[in-house]
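Homework help board

Subject: predicted structure for assignment chain

Our instructor gave us this sequence and asked us to write out the predicted structure in token form, then describe one feature. I got the tokens but I'm not sure how to describe them. Can anyone check?
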Amino acid sequence: MSREQQAVARARKAFETGRSKCLEHRIRQLKNLQRLFTERQKEISDAIKKDLNKSEVGTQLYETLGLEGEISLAIRKLKEWAAPRSVEKNLLTISDTVYIKPEPLGVVLVIGAWNYPWAVTIQPLIGAIAAGNAAVVKPSEVSVHTAKVMEDLLPLYIDKELYPVVTGGVSETQELLRQRFDHIFYTGNSMVGKLIMEAAAKHLTPVTLELGGKSPCYIDKNCDINIACRRVVWGKYTNCGQTCIAPDYILCEPSIQDRVIEEVKKSIKEFYTENPKTCPDYGRIINQRHFKRIMAMLEDSTVAVGGDNDESDCYIAPTVLRDVKPDAKVMQEEIFGPLLPILPLGGLDEAIKFINKGEKPLALYVFTPDDKVITRMRDETSSGGLLANDCLVHYSVSSLPFGGVGNSGMGCYHGKFSFDQLSHLRGCLIKQLKMEGVNSMRYPPHTPKKLGWARFFILKNLDLGWMGRMMLLATLFVVAAVVLQNYVL
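My token output:
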């Protein structure tokens, strides 16, 4: 039996003990996980520094702070989320108990990504624990130092049988995907997402795919371009552009392109100094393979800002490209790096048409003071999320679902959405062996008269308060007696 098979088998055996279903156990595991981030911040930050050159403050800001918030929310709300949820009844079920009972799915596989290796791996794990599942955690092998720290630390804080960590590369992931899971949660790119779905289909395993794509950023000529560009620069060059919801490219009218370039340049200097290479807040490309991939995108475009690079250090300066054509290499795939193409076009109508010609993005950004422009962009396009006049921050709002649509993914998570995504929402209806007269309308022989009663009970929608429901219930007893008497005689 392979190491991967053993981990899955142990997780399933642990789940079958039932201990993960206990709310107290879930809360205890979440509190232990929260303790990890307060006690082991140095090890976490040191590993991410080696992988992506993030500073310790940057690691807390973009990786662990949000996780601590998600854990606190789950601990505070878990009893409410896990409780039976009452639902609206129809006349046929007015005297019955009808509700939704969230229950664990079983054993979940969480496959993380390398760009925010703690945030995008542990956040689904929080949902899996809160929902009462077991979970096999597969950190990305690309962020090699973080994967090792995760493998070492998680078993010290949370149940190592219920939540095993499996490290390794492509072959280990493939071996995991041969096993049967009750849900697979993957964060990464669409090419691998298709392989995940193919493997999951063999066991009819449901999947959540958090992918990416080319997230557009439309800048209206009437907006405050200085503020817009500051926010775009922050969103684009955070983590050296290696963010799934980073603004991938700018759409704007030709008349403001030079101003946009100038303001972007000013903000780059303000945030990352004259020499970003020596700035502690500017990261590095994850490895030389990705460095070469990104640099190849520059071949047929004009550099307006930046362009400096050092392959030995995996450094690419914050770079802006001007007058980019739709068929340029940089426009053929998600950039996932610090290149910011600007595509001049003739206003909002053209921007909407351009966006709709491509795959549906994970995020769509629009900068404008005009609510009508925001409304049109919202109503006439499709994307995983939409954010007006800022970048990235919708990811931090736990009350908003985070996820893609179409090529940018399926399913969503964060806060209660994580809990629901990794739960089975079981529909329950509890009847009593009474009022059999009302049921006579459904029993053979079927007659027009019975159909008439059925139409009334099924199609009639009444919005009743407590007193109204009591009166209706009393009426139903009378109707049941009359119906039963008619069919008995």
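Reply (TA_rk): Your tokens look well-formed. For the description, you could write something like this. DSSP finds 17 helices and 17 strands in the chain. That's the kind of observation they're looking for.
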